[in-house]
Amino acid sequence: MTQTPADTLVVLDFETTGLSPNQGDRAIEIGAVKLHQGQVVDRFQQLMNPGFRVSGFIEGYTGITNAMLAGAPGCDEVMDGFADFIDGCNMVAHNASFDQRFLDAELAAVGRDYAGDFVCSMLLARRLYPEAPNHKLGSLVTFKSIPHDGVFHRALADAQMTADLWMAMLADLQGDWGVSAPRFAQLKKLSKTPKAQVSRVLASLA
Question: Which of 28, 158, 163, 191 is the 20 to 30 Å CA partner of 45?
Fold first, then answer.
């Protein structure tokens, strides 16, 4: 997976009942965009019933109500299908440690796994755009003038915005630093590079 290009991957986002699967929280929506050579070739979106009522806070935050979830398939059914969708792909998420925790927990519950690797678009944006006001997804979308429909905290909309941000970062890597056709593993390394060393690493990639 390490030699795959950085423009061919799955960008994903979870909406959940809380912050931690270790505390019993479950996924309630998954949204994902599959990119091949920078073009969207497939999408995945599904609500999923966690088996218990979600809080009023989560209903308000996500817009996903208990009524919407009542008729949704269970997490197990949805995640089994999503495992097929991401098969063989590297993945990107904004604040990826959060999404990876839920992906790992939900796939483990159905006895599935994945071979791909993760890069966090938030960490990469911190290296490329230190001058941004902050590195939340909505702020970066505004900072980079990325078109959007104003919907936040729904999984597919957030995944699409993250995919657009990812492609904007690839364009800036080429335009500002002469880094063309980077590999996924190179961007993972860059996302974890101490900020004082970012310029040196970028120069080495050019």
Answer: 191
